[in-house]
């Protein structure tokens, strides 16, 4: 596999439809722009439609906007319905949008903000759109995680919504661990269909607005060190783009920067934390997520994978 994979390695995407969440800025913007440049019809699924339109105007080709607020399941359902009315196929779903280190708050449905936005919103969106992907060879769901899935991270089934205690980093870690566990369980369920694949990616340390909610004690050192330890959003988007478009990429794989400690560099295959591969927890999280969102996927758990 190439050690210096770039956007020039993206195959022709003409005739393909891609939905990218959080695509008006940062990593999502760079992901959407690169796909549009290679000929894909791209939908920017964003909370602020006006900002989405401004972003779309800077991209080539067929780029449109869909309002989507991942903090509201009503909005997720409305966005999915709108997309289904516009398209009879979906080749790429890039679950990119996210929040990081937010103060303790909840989504409109009462979920802890980071878990509700980063995991449950994308879980629901994927389930509501997946049947548009299942008939299509080489269709892919790519979910963006983070190296933060290793930091104080666990799936706290006894307090998923952090009602009894709250830590910004731990809550973020849980949401990003959930992204990976969702990907691995989704791929297990997709494996019997042989068409759609689920992959994950992380951007390393990229200079985006995502860390704006970091505590002040962290923001100042990061500002000083940023030139040394971060990379541009365009570079940070490469792992996602490789997972989405590289013909050699396989379902269940995880891509990240190839440099030291996966902080920066060209994308390559990486591994996630040992707990992220625990099948029983993946399956329990899936079941809980279906219950919380009310979204049932059009694919069943393989009989051989059941405990």
TrEMBL record:
Q: Name one Pfam family in it.
A: adh_short
Q: Does the keyword Oxidoreductase apply?
A: yes
Keywords from the named record: Oxidoreductase
Database matches in InterPro entries: NAD(P)-bd_dom_sf, SDR_fam
The family database entries (NCBIfam families) matched by this protein are listed as: PRK06197.1 (NF004846)
In the record, the note on similarity to other proteins reads: Belongs to the short-chain dehydrogenases/reductases (SDR) family.
What is the name of this protein? Short-chain dehydrogenase
Q: Which organism is it from?
A: Paractinoplanes durhamensis
């Amino acid at each position: 596999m190439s050690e210096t994979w770039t956007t020039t390695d993206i195959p022709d995407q003409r005739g393909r439809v891609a939905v990218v969440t959080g695509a008006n800025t940062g990593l999502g913007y760079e992901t959407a722009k690169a796909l549009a440049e290679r000929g894909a019809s791209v939908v920017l699924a964003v909370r602020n439609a006006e900002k989405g339109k401004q972003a779309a105007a800077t991209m080539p080709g067929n780029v449109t906007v869909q309002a989507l607020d991942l903090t509201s399941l009503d909005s997720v359902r409305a966005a999915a319905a709108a997309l289904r009315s516009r398209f009879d196929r979906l080749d790429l779903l890039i679950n990119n949008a996210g929040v990081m280190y937010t103060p303790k708050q909840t989504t409109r449905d009462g979920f802890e903000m980071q878990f509700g936005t980063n995991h449950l919103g994308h879980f629901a969106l994927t389930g509501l759109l997946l049947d548009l992907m299942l008939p299509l060879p080489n269709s892919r769901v790519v979910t963006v995680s983070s190296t933060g899935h290793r930091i104080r991270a666990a799936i706290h089934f006894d307090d998923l919504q952090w009602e009894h205690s709250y830590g910004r980093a731990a809550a973020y870690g849980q949401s990003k661990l959930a992204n990976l566990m969702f990907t691995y369980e989704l791929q297990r369920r997709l494996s019997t269909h042989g068409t759609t694949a689920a992959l994950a990616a992380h951007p390393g340390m990229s200079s985006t607005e995502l860390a704006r909610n970091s505590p002040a004690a962290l923001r100042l050192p990061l500002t000083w060190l940023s030139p040394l330890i971060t990379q541009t959003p365009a570079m940070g988007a490469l792992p996602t783009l490789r997972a989405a478009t590289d013909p050699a990429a396989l379902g269940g794989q995880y891509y990240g920067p190839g440099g030291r400690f996966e902080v920066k560099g060209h994308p390559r295959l990486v591994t996630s934390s040992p707990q992220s591969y625990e099948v029983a927890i993946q399956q329990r999280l899936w079941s809980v997520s279906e219950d919380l969102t009310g979204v049932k996927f059009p694919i069943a758990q393989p009989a051989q994978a059941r405990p």
